[in-house]
Amino acid sequence: MSGNRTLAVLVFVGFVSNMVMAQNTQLSSIHPTGHKPKSKKVRPLNFPVIETGDSAVDANINQHLKKDFLGVDSVEIDLQQALDTWIDGVDFLDYEVTYDQYGLLSLLISAEGCGAYCTSWSEPYVFSTYSGKEVELYDFMDTTRFIPFLREQVNNRYTFARYTIKHYLGDSLTGVDTTDYEWALEVYEQCQKDFYPDDFLLYDDRIEILAPCPMPNAIKTLTPLVDLSYSRYDLSPYLKYRTGPDSPLFMMDKP
Question: In the chain, helix, strand, coil percent, each to 5?
Answer without folding.
Answer: 40, 25, 40
